[in-house]
Amino acid sequence: MSDIGLVSKPLPLELISEIVAFLDDRDDIYGLFGKPPPPSLFPCSLVCRAWNIICRSHIFCRVIICDFDRHFSRLSFLHFTAPHLFKAIRFFHFGWNVDVDDSVTALPSWVSDCFKRFENLRVLSLWGGSTDMLKALDLNITPLVATPRLRKLYIQTWCFEDDASDLLDILLSTNPQLEELVLDNVFGASDVVDEDDVPDAPSAVRFEALRCLELQNVDHSLVRYSAFIECPNLKSLVAEWPEDWDLPPWCSTNFSDLEILVDTDCGLPNFGKAIRPSAFTIDIIGLGSILEVATWIKDCINRLPFPDLVRQLTVSADICRIDEQDFKAFYCEIADLFCFLQQIRDLGGLEGMSMSIKVPVGCVGDITTDMQVQARELVKLEEALGPLLKSGGLPVFYSSNSKSISNVGQFRKLLKLESKHVARQYRTRQRQYQGLYLKDSEAYRADISMEISHQDTSSFSKQLPTELILQIIAGFDRRGNSNTYSGSVTGVPPCLTACSLVCHAWNDMCRPYIFRIVEISAGTLIPRLSFLHFEAPHLCNYVLDFRLSLDTRADSEPFPAWLPDCFSRFRNLGALYLADIGSVNSSLAELSPLDMGITTLLATAPNLRKLHLEGWDLDRDVVSVLPTSSRLEDLSLNVISTSMTTVVSSPPRFDGLQILELDNIPYPLLKFKTFIECPNLRSLVAEWYDPVRWKVPPWVSTRFSELTLNVNVWSGCPDFGEVIQPSVLTINISGSESCSNFITWIKTCVASLPFPNLLHRVTINIKVTGVNERKCEELYRELEKLSVFFHKLCDLGVLQRIALKIELFAGRVNTINDSYDILDPSSEVKAQDLAKLKDLFSALLERDSLDFDVILEWCSTSGDLVFYTRVQN
Hints:
With 873 residues, the protein is α/β, with parallel strands linked by helices.
């Protein structure tokens, strides 16, 4: 049953968030072609409402609407049926088919309002518009591009007017805090371009925050404008053109990162005379030979106006066609290329280089399995890289099919020769495949199904992050704070011990939780301490809460000499509970806590802040034990007796003591004038069940601000004296007497305070057992008296809050008019109870300066809550 109860408890929301985030293992949710949500997120969202809310932000973080037939239905669903989902959307792709959608000239009027709801949008992708469609969308998408949190904008396959005025209008409406802008396959409406006709420059739009600009296959008219986009703080430029091209005149030349995406059929770029990139990346696909690829790379680098300023060079070459003759010359061309790079390095700037060369399978031989071939290829590679290797400028790592063969140098740079199947692809074909992705075609769905099956089998084989394991383990340990004693614990949760058996890593992480609380009961003291002392002393370091219950009648063996040494190992203790020590009903009664090493335990724990002593006979040891724990903040004395008749001459002083609990302390100890000194006491908790009138001990500081009383209705009313000035009073009272006895006790207690006018907060918890018809009849009469008393108390001074909770434990009894059974109330009866409480406490509820809260709970005799009524202002 303990297992079932433990598992049924809800996991902390932080842990659920970590679990869901781990299942959502997508690397880049903001990427243009990111993956769909993992299938495991959907069943997680059905667990309960809490899981659903947490999963929602992951499932709906990416929304892609591509099929125009579904535009209106999907947007309508979001706008009218599920507007709460807009908050989760951070990536939104909106696309349509140019060939199919040309006839559409308008969208519904509500679409503009729909677009305004994307308040948390970070990335927006607009794909595939004709001129007519663009005009229809222009005003509608303005709120979409103006979203205040938008940081990245994709505009793809977009047809604009010849003067680009419509495209400029969209950019002018875009959030000025935009950080990334991608213009991909953006072209003019006119098919004929006059190279000598330079278009009039439109008004420029300025993006101060723009850090990254990508221009891929952008129409020549945009490139030739003298002014179009101002981006003075540009850091990175990514460019791709299928033919000869120049850097746009309007583009900032202050960027530090330059990346070009080309194939060998492209003309060489004209970089101008101003750019000074420190990081230069060439991503090239070539149908030509390795000679053509190497030549293109060298010519491209030579066109940089300041090649000596390049610090990091990255080259990725995908050679789609290579015959046997070309491959024989492979290393010669590589050697020539690296001789050229050596010249660049000699200019003084080049600090690092990364190169990846992919060639088709078949021309290299089976280097993935033949170690002799691998060794031979490595020798050739080292010869080709000779100039740079000798200079120490380029440590190299050689690998094939992700299989390491050897390393040379410090692995700070990378050359990767990779054999793989490469189809004859151009980037336009890649873009066509991406188009299938966006159109939600059959090919895309088939691809996704394969991707899902791969993800399902692999995601769970990955090792959980350490932080997540720690949160899971902490969620299973529900034994409370280690520095707070609340009675016996239920033992180590079974889930914790099971987790410790998963592997060594889990065991190491579970150990501090399993041994955080150690409880040793009577009869097992010696064998359990012997295990800790001799076999597992390292476990003592994990013990933060040590609970030792010693009955000398059960533990009749002589205490071993090693006991003090064992106790000295518990150096990280924060809380210590000692019970039934020094019982006079034993032949070992003459043994003191000193003899048992208790003082060693108290003295060697520098972090000890909580001490609970229960059932302890304090005689000659009282002077010796308490001074060893002078750093205490919380001291609890429960059923402490003593035969001492004289006061302590030099009482121990506890400057840090904040909380003192006195539970059922015999009268002799209470009348001592000196026992301990606690000048900074904040809270006094007193519990007694004697009919004798209780007095605040003379040795207790009177400066405490919080007073808590745990009593029975037959307990003697306290005598507070004439000095104490608590501002917070809590009374926990229980019993089976009539309701009038409870109210009388409470009123008498509060009236006994020397300064009731100084009370700021009063909390009263009443538990009435054995409720019958008579008690039900008098309940509301007594509550009316209590209301009058509270009202007068408020008039005395500065009372800010009153909290009253009454728990009534009853069998099947009827109320005053026998109209209903309290264990089976109707909604009408509940409403009547609520109205009664509001009427009884109306004067208090109307006080604006008072925080007033009343809860009336009806419970069965077994303790189950049947129903409750609550009134508060």
